[in-house]
Amino acid sequence: MTTTLVIGANGQIGSTLASLLAAQGQTVRRATSRTPSQPGEVQVNLATGQGLAAALAGVDQLFLMAPPGYANQHELLIPAIDAAKAARVRKVLLLSAMGANADDSIPLRRAELHLERSGLAWNVIRPNWFMQNFHTFWLHGIQTQGQIFLPVGNAKGSFIDTRDIAAVAAKLLSSENFVNESHDLTGSESLDHTQVAAILSKATGRTIGYTDIPEDAMRQGLLGAGLPADYTEFLLVILGAFKAGYSERITDGVQRITGQAPIRFEQYAQDFKAHWA
User: Can you give the residue ranges of every domain in the chain?
Assistant: First the structure.
């Protein structure tokens, strides 16, 4: 029986992935940064390396992602890849981000290249911006003022549901058909934030709009929410890439790997409408 360690198993992607792998009959170790509270959970801190070697013992596969809040993701991911190799893990699936391969100096790209050169079987998935951001990171403005506040102009993004990302990851961790390949993952359509706001309005029955704000207003909002300065600047860089049009591209990765069309934004809005209503 295959044993897979899932880093971030309590997160949007990891929790769904862990359930999918368990349903396939795999043994899943759910790594969490918190004290384990149920069977199958292990505590891992990628920032310090604490608990990683023990969690990897006897593991066949690793789903690896950087925790949020870190701008230099390679500093956490590269030691984890090395630990997986030392533990004789057979395959590592790395969660990266669309556009990370635009420049080899980008932290996530540095981790990708290290994995590709590691001698391990590997996959890299690079999803676009998550639909789920609208009921997590961007939720406060919608709840309190009925507005999505972002510095992205009228640019469009091919937003992807995290459930589709998990479905792709589950397929890659149960098949050898795509070994040693990277995949850019998007939804099936590109929407600007005015269109997103209209879809959320229809789903919730309340008026939700979009306000294009200056970059510095976003900076002050992120810092005020307690985000580290370097991570704030990282977010502003990738939001700038969105505004420049780099998030509009659509790929067939979800359909090609899972055999299912990506979840549409309307379905996402219906499934999570309680968060905004």
Answer: 3-126, 128-160+186-248+263-277
pTM: 0.96
pLDDT tens sequence across 38-67: 889 999 999 999 999 999 999 999 999 999
Determine the topology of domain 3-126 in CATH: Rossmann fold (3.40.50)
Fold (topology level) of 128-160+186-248+263-277: UDP-galactose 4-epimerase; domain 1 (3.90.25)
Three-state secondary structure along the chain?
CCEEEECCCCCHHHHHHHHHHHHCCCEEEEEECCCCCCCCEEECECCCCECHHHHHCCCCEEEECCCCCCCCCHHHHHHHHHHHHHCCCCEEEEECCCCHHHCCCCHHHHHHHHHHCCCCEEEEEEECCEHHHHHCCCHHHHHHHCEEEECCCCCEECCECHHHHHHHHHHHCCCCCCCCEEEEECCCCCEEHHHHHHHHHHHHCCCCEEEECCHHHHHHHHHHCCCCHHHHHHHHHHHHHHHCCCCCCCCCHHHHHHCCCCCCHHHHHHHCHHHCC
